[in-house]
Amino acid sequence: MNRDRTSKSTTPGMAWIRHTCRVLRRVGHWPRWVQVLCVLTVVLAGAAVWLVVTRPSNPAVEHRSQLRVQGFSSADERADDRVGHTASAVFYGPPVDDMLKLVSAPGLRLMAYEPDESVKRRIAVDGPGRLETVAVGDFTDDCRLTIDRIHDPVGIWINQTSEQARAVRNGDLQAFRFAVVCGPG
Predict the structure, then answer these.
(1) Other C-beta atoms within 10 Å of 144: how many?
(2) Which residues pair with 149 in a beta bridge?
(3) Is 76 left (phi over 0), alpha (psi -120 to 50) or beta?
(4) What average pLDDT is seen over the chain?
(5) DSSP string, 106-172
(6) Helix (H) or strand (E) holding 65
(7) Closest by alpha carbon to 78, among 132, 143, 3, 156?
(8) What is the rounded distance in angstroms from the CA atom of residue 147 to the CA atom of residue 87?
(9) How confident is the model over 8-31, as a mean pLDDT?
(10) Are 144 and 136 in contact (CB under 8 A)?
(11) Which of 81, 83, 136, 147 has the fewest other C-beta atoms within 10 Å?
(12) Stretch 93-99: mean pLDDT, rounded?
């Protein structure tokens, strides 16, 4: 193939390659340690960019962001990737009888949680505790949702006001923790 050496490509990629080749031709006059340092810098920068670009997203965060609870506001959103993919949020609003009717999200199959008899006996004696599981659900992928009613928000709902905490304890306001977990476990 006979190409004219004077023809120049107009694509930005080719211009960048030509510029890089010119710089590399000049590098031959630099001391060897500077050349090695330059190559290492370019390789490490490329690896850092590759890691950032190819980092997998957290599907639990995506599911949490798609959750809708009619008449409730969202607060205290968290995510964690250290042990699997997890994400949670607190939803608060007026007292309701059936939370399941208010929750929607794409691909979510939700059902009421029914504790076994031993748990029911413990609740009858000790009360529900700080959290009470009211519903569980599955998404179409490998993710699950748990909805817990918050009876005492201390340590669970971090950003609540003192009025909100008092209203939750009195039953004037209901708060629920929605926790999404993806992957095995």
Answers:
(1) 17
(2) 132, 176
(3) left
(4) 79
(5) TT-EEEE----HHHHHHHHHH---SEEEEEEEE-SSSEEEEEEEES--TTTSTT--HHHHHHHHHTS
(6) helix 59-66
(7) 156
(8) 12
(9) 66
(10) yes
(11) 83
(12) 89
Q: Give the containing element (helix H, strand E) for 38.
A: helix 32-54
Look at residue 8 and tell me whether its pLDDT is greater than 90. Answer: no
DSSP secondary structure code for residue 77 in this structure: E
Q: What pLDDT, in 10s, does the model give residues 156-177?
A: 776 678 888 888 888 888 889 9
Question: If you search the block for the tokens 């205290």, which residue do you land on?
Answer: 76
Residues 99-124 have pLDDT tens digits of 889 998 999 999 998 888 887 787 77
**Alpha-carbon distance 153 to 173, whole Å?**
11
Q: Is the pTM of this model over 0.85?
A: no
User: What would the two tokens of residue 110 be?
Assistant: 């939700």
Structure tokens at 94: 């007026």
